[in-house]
Amino acid sequence: MRGVKPIRRKKISEEIVEEIKRWIEQGELPLDSKLPSEKELSDMFGVGRSSIREALSMLAAARIIETRQGEGTFVRKVDLSDYIHPLALSIVAKKEQTLHLLETRKIIELGTVELAALRADQRDLKEMKKALIDFEYQLEIGEAGVDADFAFHRAIAIASKNPVLIQVIDSLSPVMKQSLTYTLHQNIGNLAKRRSVLQEHKEIFARIEKRDAQGAVACMRRYLENVRKKLSELKE
């Protein structure tokens, strides 16, 4: 068939990366634990050391592991700078780290939504409304709605007319989307919960549209607090 791209087989090193990531995600290699040596990994995977070295280089570039002189290779403890690298995202976006990000979002988004309520113009309101329509459609057809949800929050940041806040939201976009994926996927299969999240977003928008800054802050605070409660109840 025309337009069909050939399937690209994964390199051996990429498969090794995926397996080591799985070990970390499942707790077989806890944070700050030491990895097996190159020789041990080579024997375990049944591959040459060059493939092992390439895989370890990829993990190091993603800031997932680090080499300590005279000690060996260890799983790194994650920090905010790790969130930006796509390879690290699947490890970062777990319950504890998502809760930490939620605290950060609360600090940023409460101030952002207050400014948006005071400064939003018709174009901003149109973008927020479009994001809500997209969000509602995605939820109704059973999708998580991650992109539309993020688009709504970014539209609020743009409406703040503060270029620093917009840049902060944009710099956090990879991890925010990963966090939204983690939280919104908990609602897949539960239409009532999905509609509840949508309604919270609509209430935030209604307050912004009415230029009710205090009301917008209260709605955003309530929404973020509800997310925190739902996350706290989840098992890893």
Automatic annotation (TrEMBL):
| UniProt keyword terms in alphabetical order | DNA-binding, Transcription, Transcription regulation
Source organism, top-level taxon: Bacteria
Write down the SMART domains for this protein, in alphabetical order. Answer: FCD, HTH_GNTR
**Record SUPFAM superfamilies:** GntR ligand-binding domain-like (SSF48008), Winged helix' DNA-binding domain (SSF46785)
Query: Which GO molecular function, any one, fits this protein according to its record?
Result: DNA-binding transcription factor activity
The UniProt entry, under Pfam families, shows: FCD, GntR
Residue stretches making up the HTH gntR-type domain: 10-78
| UniProt keyword annotation of Chaperone present | no
User: Which InterPro entries does the record cross-reference, listed alphabetically?
Assistant: GntR_C (IPR011711), TF_FadR/GntR_C (IPR008920), Tscrpt_reg_HTH_GntR (IPR000524), WH-like_DNA-bd_sf (IPR036388), WH_DNA-bd_sf (IPR036390)
Q: What is this protein called?
A: HTH gntR-type domain-containing protein
According to its UniProt entry, this protein's organism is: Parageobacillus toebii
Q: What is the lineage of its organism?
A: Bacteria, Bacillati, Bacillota, Bacilli, Bacillales
